[in-house]
Specification:
The complex is a heterotrimer of chains A (364), B (303) and C (199). Chain B has 303 residues and is α/β, with parallel strands linked by helices. Helices cover 25% and strands 17% of the residues of chain B. In chain B, strand 6 and strand 7 form a beta hairpin. Chain C starts with 12 loop residues before the first helix and ends with a strand. The chains are: A alpha+beta (364), B alpha/beta (303), C alpha/beta (199).
Chain lengths: 364, 303, 199
C-alpha cells in the first residue's frame, strides 16, 4: 500500500502557496488588519454575518481577509466554522420594539411616535467619487443630540391597534424550525422560509423582490418601517429558568405593508412582509420582506403565478453557498461522462451520415 | 511507502463531524439500507469544501469510517485527480486513517463518476458522491411532485422519456446517470457514472452508499441486490463498447478515457481506472503505446 | 437522583459508537448474518448491555425512544438512557424512532409501531429486541436484498407469530418496521425487505 503522492498533490499545495502570496500582495503596502476590516468595511462584515448565519464581527472580518474580499467565499468560511459549533439551545425571541435605534424611517407616515431618524445612510448622498478619502482626510465630527432612550413602537403595531393590518399572534407553543438541523420539507412553514431568506443571497433576493415590483407577483408594498440598531440577545439556561443577556446584536428590520383586497374568509386589510438581518443591510431586509410577502401567496388564497411566489423555486435556490458550489463544480473533471457523450454523438453522426447516404443513393 | 496514519488535526472530532451529526447520518444510512433505492432526507451539514464537490460522499464516509479502515478516493476513476487528492488528504488529516490507491486494499472507496473495474468484495463499502439524486428531477423539477411519483411507484414519465429517445434517435440517448430500478421497486439515480458501470451495481457483494450533500439525500443499495437498468424488450440496455483495448495495458471490456495527443486528430484510449491499469502493467501487460507514453497514468491529475 | 448513581456508557464514545454502528450497518445490509457486538458498558438491569449499546450509538435528542413495560418501569434504566442519550422517551410506540424491547413475550405487535408513509417510508420505528441466542442456520429462511441467494437464521425466544407478522410487514413495503436483534455480544437484523419463511 502506498499513498499517492503524484503531481496532483504537489500542484494543489503549490496553488495554495501562491494564493497566500497573492492574498498578501506587495509587502510595500501595509498588511490589512481584521480590526480595520471590521470597523471600516463594516457593511461587508454585516453581509458575511447575515448570510453566514453567525453573529461574530471579528470572525467575519477575518474571513473577509482570508477570502481576499470575495464575500461569498467569506460567507462559506463562516458557515463551515458555524457547522461544528455545539448548540446549547434556542435564544429568546428578540424584541425589536426595544431596539436602541440608530436609524428608523417610515414611508407610510410623515411623522409618528419615536420620529423619523435618518442615522448613517447613503440615501441622498450624491454618488460622486470622494477623492478626499484617498487622501486620508479625517471627516468632521458628527452632530450629536441628547436623547432619552425609550422604546419606539413599530409602525405595524400602530396599525394593528386599529385592526387595519392582519394580526400576528405569537405562538409560544410551536417549535421553531431550523433548516440547518433538519432537512427542508415542502411546503415549508413561515419560520423556515424566513430563516432561508435571512441566510439567502442578497443579490438573488434583490432580483426576486424587484421582479414582484415589475408585475411578476405584484404585492402592492409600502415600507411601513425600516429600523436599524442594537437589541439584546437573551438565552434561558435550563438550570436557571430565567433569561440571561448574551450581548447586544445589531439588526436591520423591515416591515413591508401590503394592500390586500380580502377574500371569502378575510376582510380587506393590510398584510405583512417581514425582513430581518444581522447588521445594517436595508437592501437585504427590504428584498427579504418583499419575497416573504410573495411567498405567502397561497395563504391569502391567491394563485401562484410568478417565480417569487414559488416556494420550492425560491427556497431551493436562494442559498449562495449551495449555488456557488454547484455552479463551480462544473470545473471539476467530467471527462468520464464527456467520453460517454462523445461516443454517443459519434455514433449518432455516423448513423446520420449513413441515412444521408441511403437517401442520396435512392435519389440517384 | 506503506499505508500512512497521519496525526489528527487539532480541534476537530475524529473524521471532522461531531458525534451528533454522525448519529443523524448513521440513522439515515440504516434507513437507506432498509429501503433500497429510496432517498432518505438528512440534514446535510455545511462542510469545509464546496457543495457539489463531494460533500454528501464526505459526510457518509465520515459517518462510517473507523480507525482500522483503509480509504481509497477516486474521481473519474483516478486516484490522483485534484478533487480525489483533496478528499483523501482531508480524511488522512481529520481521521488519521490509512489511505491507499489500490482497490483491493481499500475497505471504503469514495468515488465520483466511476466504479472500479476490479470486482468489489463483501469486505468493502463504496460511497458515491451524488450531485442530483432525483432520477425524475429533469422530468419534473418539483420535489413535492417527484415524492408522490415515488410513493406511487409511478415511473411512467421516465419510460416515456426513454421511449421518446428511441423514436427520435433510434436508441436511448442517456449515456451516464442512467436510471436503474432497485430491488424491483424504486427507480434510482446511480450518480453520474457512465452506464458502462451500471451492471457492476447488480448483485454487487459490496455495500453501496450514496450521499448528496447539497440536495440533502442519502440512499443505499445493500449487497446482493437486484439493480436493473431501465430498458424495453425491443431495445435492451447496452453498455458502451470501445473499438480498441487500452493503449497502455491492453485491457478490453474496461471503460477508456480518450487522451488527445496532438492538434492533428491524434488520440489514444487508456483505462479510466488508473489503479487497474497500473496493476495490469505491473503484471506485464503491455498496450500498443505503453513504451511511448511514460507517466500517462497521471493524465488529468494536476493539470 | 444523583448523576453518580448512573453507570458508565462507552469508555471511548467516538470510537465505540463507530464500531457498534459498523456492526449494525453490516447486520442490516446482510440480513440474518450475526455480527459481533462488543457492548462493553455497564447497563442497569433489565436493560441489557447490548440494548444500551444500540441506544448509545443511535439515539439522541433528535431521535425518540420507546421502552417496553419492563424497561419503562425501571427508574435506573430511564435515568441511564436519559443521561447517556438525551433522547426523548415516548409512551406511544407509533411515535418512536427506536424501540427497545427487553421482554420479547410481552412485545406489542409490529403494526403498533410507526410504519412510515408511502411518501416518507423512513419515518418508521427500528425495533431493537433483546434475545438469548442468535445463530446462522435454523428454521427461518431468508430471501431478499443483502442475501446472495437464500440464508437460514435462528433466534430465541421469538416474538409471538413472528413469521406471520413479518409477512404482513413485508407486504406493506416500502412502509414497515425494521427489526434488530441483540444477543450476547451479538447483533443481527431483519430489515423490512427480507422475506421470511419457516421451513
Amino acid at each position: 500500500m502506498y499513498v499517492a503522492v503524484k503531481g496532483g498533490e504537489e500542484a494543489i499545495d503549490n496553488a495554495h502557496g501562491l494564493l497566500a502570496h497573492e492574498r498578501r500582495g506587495p509587502v510595500s503596502v501595509p498588511d490589512l488588519s481584521p480590526d480595520q476590516i471590521e470597523t471600516q468595511l463594516a457593511l461587508a462584515v454585516d453581509r458575511v454575518m447575515a448570510e453566514g448565519s453567525l453573529y461574530d464581527p471579528a470572525l467575519a472580518a477575518l474571513a473577509i481577509k482570508q477570502s481576499r474580499g470575495d464575500l461569498i467565499e467569506a460567507i462559506f468560511l463562516v458557515r463551515a466554522f458555524r457547522t461544528t459549533l455545539p448548540r446549547f439551545g434556542n435564544g429568546e425571541p428578540v424584541d425589536t420594539g426595544a431596539m436602541a435605534i440608530e436609524r428608523r424611517i417610515s414611508a407610510t407616515f410623515k411623522d409618528l411616535p419615536g420620529g423619523q431618524v435618518l442615522g448613517p445612510t447613503f440615501d441622498y448622498t450624491h454618488r460622486l467619487i470622494d477623492f478626499m478619502l484617498a487622501a486620508g482626510v479625517a471627516p468632521p465630527a458628527p452632530a450629536e443630540v441628547e436623547t432619552d432612550f425609550e422604546a419606539t413602537p413599530r409602525v405595524t403595531d400602530l396599525l394593528d391597534g386599529q385592526g387595519l393590518i392582519e394580526a400576528e399572534l405569537p405562538d409560544d407553543t410551536a417549535e421553531v424550525g431550523d433548516l440547518t438541523r433538519a432537512p427542508l420539507d415542502f411546503p415549508a412553514d413561515r419560520d423556515l422560509r424566513l430563516q432561508a431568506l435571512a441566510r439567502g443571497d442578497e443579490g438573488f433576493l434583490l432580483a426576486l423582490g424587484y421582479s414582484t415590483q415589475r408585475g411578476y407577483g405584484r404585492t402592492h408594498p409600502f415600507v411601513g418601517e425600516i429600523r436599524f440598531g442594537e437589541v439584546m440577545a437573551e438565552f434561558v439556561p435550563e438550570e436557571l429558568g430565567f433569561a440571561v443577556p448574551l450581548g447586544p446584536v445589531s439588526l436591520t428590520e423591515c416591515q413591508m405593508v401590503n394592500q390586500f383586497h380580502g377574500s371569502a374568509e378575510l376582510p380587506p386589510q393590510f398584510t405583512r412582509g417581514y425582513g430581518l438581518v444581522f447588521g445594517q443591510s436595508e437592501r437585504k431586509a427590504m428584498a427579504m420582506s418583499l419575497v416573504d410577502r410573495a411567498l405567502r401567496t397561497r395563504e391569502f388564497g391567491e394563485d401562484v403565478t410568478a417565480p417569487a411566489q414559488d416556494e420550492e423555486f425560491v427556497l431551493s435556490h436562494c442559498d449562495n453557498v449551495q449555488a456557488t458550489g454547484f455552479v463551480e463544480h462544473l470545473k471539476l473533471p467530467h471527462y468520464v461522462d464527456f467520453q460517454a457523450e462523445l461516443g454517443l454523438v459519434r455514433k449518432m453522426r455516423s448513423e446520420y451520415a449513413a441515412r444521408q447516404q441511403e437517401l442520396k443513393e435512392a435519389a440517384e | 511507502m506503506s499505508a500512512v496514519a497521519a496525526p489528527q488535526a487539532n480541534g476537530y472530532n475524529f473524521a471532522y463531524l461531531d458525534e451528533q451529526t454522525k448519529r443523524m447520518i448513521r440513522r439515515a444510512i440504516l434507513k437507506g439500507i432498509a429501503i433500497p433505492g429510496y432517498q432518505v432526507p438528512f440534514s446535510s451539514r455545511e462542510m469545509p469544501m464546496p457543495y457539489g464537490w463531494g460533500t454528501g460522499g464526505v459526510q457518509v464516509t465520515a459517518a462510517i469510517i473507523g480507525p482500522d479502515d483503509v480509504l481509497k478516493v477516486i474521481d473519474q476513476g483516478s486516484d490522483d485527480t485534484t478533487n480525489a487528492v483533496s478528499i483523501r488528504k482531508f480524511f488522512a488529516k481529520t481521521a488519521g486513517v490509512a489511505t491507499t490507491t489500490e482497490t483491493r486494499d481499500a475497505t471504503i472507496i469514495q468515488t465520483r463518476h466511476r466504479i472500479p473495474e476490479r470486482q468489489l468484495t463483501e469486505k468493502q463499502t463504496i460511497v458515491f458522491q451524488v450531485p442530483i439524486p432525483e432520477p425524475l428531477r429533469f422530468l419534473e423539477p418539483r420535489e413535492t411532485e417527484t415524492r408522490k411519483l415515488h410513493a406511487l411507484a409511478d415511473y411512467g414519465l421516465m419510460h416515456v422519456k426513454l421511449y421518446e429517445d428511441i423514436s427520435r434517435h433510434g436508441h436511448i440517448a442517456t449515456t451516464y446517470d442512467y436510471p436503474v430500478e432497485v430491488a424491483d421497486r424504486y427507480v434510482m439515480n446511480p450518480s453520474p457514472t457512465p452506464k458502462f458501470d451500471n451492471p457492476k451495481m447488480h448483485m454487487s457483494p459490496a455495500l453501496q452508499l450514496f450521499g448528496a450533500g447539497r440536495e440533502k439525500r442519502i440512499y443505499a443499495v445493500p449487497p446482493f441486490t437486484k439493480v436493473r437498468s431501465l430498458d424495453f424488450e425491443d431495445h435492451p440496455f447496452e453498455v458502451q463498447r470501445f473499438d480498441k483495448p487500452c493503449a497502455l495495458c491492453a485491457a478490453t471490456n474496461v471503460y477508456l478515457d480518450e487522451v488527445v495527443l496532438d492538434d492533428r486528430g491524434g488520440r489514444m484510449f487508456v483505462c479510466s481506472d488508473s489503479d487497474y491499469c497500473e496493476e495490469r502493467r505491473a503484471d506485464g501487460h503491455r498496450g500498443e503505446l505503453s513504451g511511448e507514453a511514460p507517466g500517462l497514468h497521471a493524465i488529468g491529475g494536476a493539470s | 437522583m444523583s448523576a453518580l448513581a448512573i453507570t458508565a456508557g462507552f469508555a471511548d464514545p467516538v470510537i465505540e459508537a463507530q464500531a457498534h454502528f459498523h456492526a449494525l450497518m453490516n447486520a442490516l445490509a446482510r440480513p440474518g448474518s450475526v455480527q459481533p457486538f462488543p457492548a462493553a458498558l455497564d447497563a442497569p438491569a433489565p436493560l441489557t448491555r447490548e440494548l444500551a449499546a444500540v441506544a448509545l450509538t443511535l439515539a439522541d435528542h433528535e431521535a425518540t425512544l420507546w421502552l417496553d413495560e419492563t424497561l419503562a418501569a425501571s427508574k435506573a434504566v430511564v435515568d441511564y438512557l436519559r443521561f447517556h442519550t438525551g433522547a426523548r422517551l415516548v409512551a406511544n410506540p407509533s411515535d418512536a424512532a427506536f424501540a427497545l424491547v427487553a421482554d420479547v413475550a410481552a412485545m406489542p405487535t409490529l403494526a403498533s409501531f410507526a410504519q412510515g408513509t408511502d411518501e416518507y417510508p423512513d419515518r418508521s420505528t427500528t425495533i431493537v429486541i433483546a434475545v438469548e441466542t442468535l445463530a446462522a442456520g435454523g428454521d427461518l429462511e431468508l430471501i431478499g436484498p443483502g442475501i446472495e441467494d437464500r440464508t437460514r437464521f435462528d433466534l430465541s425466544p421469538r416474538p409471538a407469530g413472528l413469521a406471520v407478522q413479518l409477512a404482513a410487514n413485508r407486504a406493506k413495503f416500502p412502509r414497515g418496521v425494521d427489526l434488530v436483534f441483540v444477543g450476547a455480544r451479538q447483533v443481527a437484523a431483519l430489515p423490512r425487505t427480507t422475506l421470511v419463511s419457516e421451513v
